[in-house]
UniProtKB/TrEMBL annotation:
GO terms for molecular function: protein phosphatase 2A binding. Gene3D superfamilies: TAP42-like family (1.25.40.540). This is TAP42-like protein. InterPro entries: TAP42/TAP46-like_sf, TAP46-like. One of its GO terms (cellular component) is cytosol.
Length: 342
């Protein structure tokens, strides 16, 4: 018989948990319509686990069977799903989710699954004293940064191990037990992070409510809106000839605060034109460095030197000179320039 089609009243804790896990994976893939039903299944698992007294404060983690380790995560999964439930009463959802995260961490602490740093952070977050800075003052900024780095590396390693096991599952009990404990350890990290985020979100909601309920704040907001409306309405009526401020110091028209005050101040008694920033010699040196000025050695020599011992080259040059002389005799200077004739 299919587990999903079987009446939930007749299902065991393991069957309910497997069904809830199946729904949770579908929700992670985008099937949010199963959210309420999945929460209901986990809540039934929570009830059965308490009824069966699966966990006790007088036993260690080694006394829990491998198949029952994953039931430690029931409260964690409910808290995660409640956090995804975007209801109108967000504050109530935050408090419910936070309490379940705390319940999960308390259960893990009873089984000594929390490290010393996890326990210190959990005690700080779970403290009722809002001004308690025991955890913050316990270590320096450098140590706290190093601790965050170590936690990030450990979390990354756990994610890698869990993904590797899911791709290549093993039926060996030791491997399966190690996998379940790593999932619990990863849930501990995420629970601590979630509590911090939920506390911050709850604080922001309370601040927002206080601002909305404060009549003085509403009065100031209305006055500011009226001032803005008045400014926008009359901005085209301002004249530059009107005074900038009234006798009480209130601005009468828009004005611009110049950021280059000192620069403008220095130009008051200066010349109208820009003064040179370097001498001519310095400019020529810079241009020479850039290769924009050719030296005498770099000027190409167009005239080819004739070897006086080479009779053929001498005859060729002499022939060219004679041809040029004949051309000049046949074409006197100005012969083709008709525009200069009187």
């Amino acid at each position: 018989m299919d587990i999903e089609n079987q009446p939930q009243e007749n299902k065991s804790l393991r069957e309910l948990f497997d069904l809830a896990e199946n729904f949770r994976r579908k929700i992670e893939n985008g099937s949010t319509e199963l959210l309420a039903e999945c929460i209901s299944l986990y809540e039934k698992c929570h009830y059965l686990s308490r009824k069966l007294s699966l966990f006790s404060n007088n036993e260690g983690i080694d006394e829990i069977s491998t198949s029952e380790i994953r039931f430690l995560l029931i409260d964690y999964y409910i808290a995660e799903l409640l956090d995804k439930n975007t209801t109108s009463n967000r504050s109530s959802a935050i408090l419910s989710s936070r309490n379940l995260f705390v319940s999960f961490l308390t259960l893990c602490e009873n089984y000594t699954l929390l490290t010393n740093s996890d326990k210190a952070l959990f005690n700080y977050l779970n403290s009722n004293e809002t001004n308690n800075e025991g955890y913050i003052n316990r270590i320096s900024d450098v140590s706290r940064r190093e601790e965050k780095i170590q936690r990030y590396k450990r979390e990354k390693e756990l994610n890698k191990n869990i993904s590797s096991f899911l791709k290549n599952p093993s039926k060996d009990e030791n491997d399966l037990r190690k996998h379940f404990l790593e999932v619990v350890q990863l849930a501990i990290f995420k629970s601590l992070q979630s509590i911090e985020q939920l506390d911050l979100e709850l604080k922001m909601i309370e601040i927002s409510k206080d601002k909305d309920q404060d009549p003085a704040n509403n009065c100031h907001r209305t006055e500011a809106e009226n001032n803005i409306h008045s400014t926008l309405k009359t901005k085209n009526n301002f004249q530059k000839d009107n005074p900038l401020l009234d006798k009480h110091g209130k601005p009468l028209r828009p004005f611009t605060i110049v950021a280059k005050r000192e620069q403008l101040k220095n130009h008051v008694f200066g010349p109208d034109h820009n003064l040179p920033t370097m001498s001519i010699d310095e400019y020529l040196k810079e241009e020479a460095k850039k290769g924009n000025i050719l030296s005498n050695k770099q000027i190409p020599q167009n005239k080819k030197e004739i070897d006086q011992d080479n009779i053929e080259e001498i005859d060729i040059e002499m022939y060219k000179a004679r041809k040029w002389d004949e051309f000049k005799e046949e074409n006197p200077k100005g012969w083709g320039n008709r525009a200069n004739r009187g």
